[in-house]
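Troubleshooting log. The previous structure file for this entry was overwritten by mistake, so regenerating from the original sequence record. Sequence copied from the archived sheet and checked twice against the printout by T.R.
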Amino acid sequence: MNAIEISHLRVLRGGRVVLPDLSCTVSSGIITGLLGPSGSGKTTLIRAIVGVQRVLSGQLTVLGRPAGSPELRRLVGYVTQSPSVYADLTVSENLAYFASMAGVARSAVPAVIETVSLGAFRQTPVSQLSGGERARVSLAAALLPAPRLLVLDEPTVGLDPVLRQELWDLFHRLAQDGVSFLISSHVMDEAGRCQQLILLREGRVLATGTPPDLLRHTETKSLEEAFLRLIAAEVTS
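Regenerated output below.
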């Protein structure tokens, strides 16, 4: 079973068609990258997947259930672009609060803190953390219910290369444990860190496949070149 199945999805935001007729799938147990420039519809698609975006038409199933179904709340973890944690609370206090909101025992908090490598900061107020550390607190909150799918919207934006590498290492460790990922980014050099790619442009799927497949198909040496060639082919077709 695919983690996500999308068929002829049509979404309007602010009276404008953002996703006119989108169809794609996200495989289970791997890291799928949702790549495209700013304004391509990545965030709108992610919001539809996690059930917080109204859909005009089409079918969208997540882990075999309609997107937004109540039972998906414990099965899908969602991390927004900006860290969604409380600056005046410590790391432990934040996660204890989110555990109670998710109906998860507080005993799960220490293990999640260690998973995201924040053990040294458990009693530190979030206001004193770096951007990368705050991002890991948000990720820890999403991990509390032990989700089967993690949907991350630009999780590494604004981070330095070292912090980005640390987060991607963590994503791969979690994927090896069976967690499915959909990770959006507009940074093409992150595409090579994914096992599957969905290239989005102006609300439409430009191409899908593994990074090596896309390079072979476009006869290019980098994924940025591949993306540009696919755009050029679309414009001239």
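Residues 31 and 181 are 5 Å apart (CA to CA). Archived copy saved in two places this time.
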